[in-house]
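Fill in residues.
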């Protein structure tokens, strides 16, 4: 369910969410309780991709934990998004065998519902779901410790408002894989576009978040639709693939294309005039939220951890000045640094 529906059902969560968001934005205040043992944190991330979101997430998490003076051990597992479902299942089993106190998983967790359900029912380890801010209805009785990330639908609506107002007439939609991210980003954009009679969808393609597949899908869009004037891309890698196809066809000046997330690769494409606009997440805040939630839990104040943390998102485009982008980057990448991570 969307955050608005969740807070309507659970209004007492609103002040908890607001206080916690202020904690995340502020400087770190070291833990006040002596730990009996280091916190064991298992992390399963789809970090093998061009987007540096997950690599930044790791750096931000450990940076904030260090600033909080929390003693911890990590066990980190990386995979490719959408593709490595079997590998993720193996990683999940290995992570659980390590007996962590906290398990950090991502929106791909929805592909492993049965295992996740068992974890939630056992209440151990404490499950942290990252990159998903829409609580799962069937888990309301036994929720994860915290959902943390950025509201995909909110960010997409920021993009849709600006892109649809540009006066485009025909667009192509490049989805991620069938599932959560495609639904929250791609379907949200399509729904917004349907409200504009003068704008029609040429075609849509699932790309698996793969740069090469996005390039091939864009090439087909261009061949079949000479009057195409806009492409909505659901992720960084998809946007980069679309840009390559537009460059090769010599049509990037005539077709609007967006990014999603505002990582270093997108900012570079924006500065080179290859990307028209994107929404920039205050990237490190989602991981700072995890560190702060762990701190509160160790201190025995888990009631102060909201069920959902949704970080700030800012729209930037070709007209955003270098000075403005520098200031936004300093805030977004306060732990992970402003250079792209490989």
């Amino acid at each position: 369910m969307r955050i608005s529906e969740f807070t309507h059902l659970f209004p007492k969560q609103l002040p908890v969410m607001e206080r916690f968001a202020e904690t995340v934005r502020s400087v770190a205040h070291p833990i006040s309780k002596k730990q009996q043992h280091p916190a064991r944190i298992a992390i399963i991330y789809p970090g093998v991709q061009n987007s540096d979101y997950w690599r930044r997430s790791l750096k931000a998490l450990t940076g904030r934990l260090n600033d909080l003076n929390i003693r911890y051990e990590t066990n980190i597992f990386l995979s490719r998004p959408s593709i490595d479902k079997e590998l993720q299942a193996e990683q999940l089993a290995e992570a659980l065998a390590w007996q962590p106190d906290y398990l950090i998983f991502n929106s791909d967790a929805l592909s492993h519902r049965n295992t996740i359900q068992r974890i939630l029912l056992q209440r151990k380890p404490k499950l942290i779901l990252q990159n998903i801010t829409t609580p799962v209805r069937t888990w309301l009785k036994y929720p994860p410790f915290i959902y943390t990330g950025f509201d995909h639908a909110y960010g997409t609506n920021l993009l849709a408002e600006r892109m649809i107002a540009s006066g485009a007439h025909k667009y192509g939609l490049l989805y991620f894989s069938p599932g959560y991210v495609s639904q929250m980003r791609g379907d949200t954009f399509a729904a917004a576009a349907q409200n504009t009679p003068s704008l029609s969808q040429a075609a849509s393609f699932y790309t698996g978040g793969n740069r090469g597949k996005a390039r091939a899908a864009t090439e087909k869009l261009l061949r079949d639709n000479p009057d195409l004037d806009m492409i909505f891309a659901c992720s960084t890698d998809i946007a980069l693939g679309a840009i390559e196809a537009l460059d090769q066809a010599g049509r990037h000046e005539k077709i609007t294309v967006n990014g999603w997330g505002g990582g270093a690769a997108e900012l570079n494409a924006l500065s080179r005039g290859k990307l028209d606009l994107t929404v920039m997440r205050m990237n490190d805040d989602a991981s700072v939220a995890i560190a702060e939630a762990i701190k509160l839990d160790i201190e025995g104040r888990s009631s102060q951890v909201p069920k959902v943390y949704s970080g700030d998102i800012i729209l930037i485009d070709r007209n955003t000045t270098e000075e403005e982008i520098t200031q936004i980057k300093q805030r977004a990448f306060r732990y992970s640094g402003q250079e792209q991570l490989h």
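The chain has twelve helices and twelve strands.
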